[in-house]
What we know:
By secondary structure, the chain is mainly α. 78% of the residues lie in helices and 0% in strands. The protein folds into two domains: 1-92, Serine Threonine Protein Phosphatase 5, Tetratricopeptide repeat; 155-259, Tetratricopeptide repeat domain (Serine Threonine Protein Phosphatase 5, Tetratricopeptide repeat, Alpha Horseshoe), CATH 1.25.40.10. The chain is built from twelve helices and no strands. The radius of gyration is 24 Å and the shape is elongated. The protein starts with 7 loop residues before the first helix and ends with a helix.
Amino acid sequence: MYYKLNNSEKALDYYSKSLKMKRRCLPDCHPYITPVILQGIGAVIYNDRPEEALKYQLEALDIQLNVAENVNCSALSSLLSDIIKTYRSIGKNENLLNFYERALQIRKKYLYKDISGMFYLLDEIGSTYKLMNKKKESLKFYEEALQILKEYFNNDQFNLARLYAIIASIYKSIDKKQDSLQFYIRAFQIQKTYLYDDKFNLARTLKGLATVNEEMSKIQWALKCYYKIKNMCTYPVCFHHRLCRESIRNIQRIEQTHR
Length: 259
């Protein structure tokens, strides 16, 4: 109650008293009560003391997995999300990646029915590797996330287009231009059909298509993509002035070079 009312000091006081009482009156690490309290303490102190919060969260996880006869799937999923959030806050990516591996195994063993949770975890892992510039590892997890999306959530056009575009950009960065081109095309086809109002991401995909086509010496296709971006700038709501200006400059550069 106090935590929901944003009274962290009172919430922590009651959580701490409750934890002492439960540990005094119940068997060590009581599987049905203690993890909830530990997770609650972690949530209360997360903003000010994330490393201490992580200790409480990891203890709660160990109790849930090693003591409880029947794992509470909903509570376990929530706890995994909290721990990942805390690792991200602390900023130690290597520790986060190690925990991702553990979280994957936990999800496969206990939360295999939560397909969307597995998708978002794979997506997060891909994102973390991408931020660390580990492209091949990032690509592996993004492609696994994409497979789940296509199999179970193929109407989620936004995430399908997003993952196609991300994977295309990774292929481009590792010099697999033909693969990059194919994934950009898939992203563009979804965006122009279902997500046309999202002009910023549509323009970003067109820019990716343009640069890959130009690198593959498909100059006319590159020009077409740049012109599409330029023409989109005439809409009342301009999605991004920088992309417009870049496209105009690229059109001028290409046309001057290939007269």
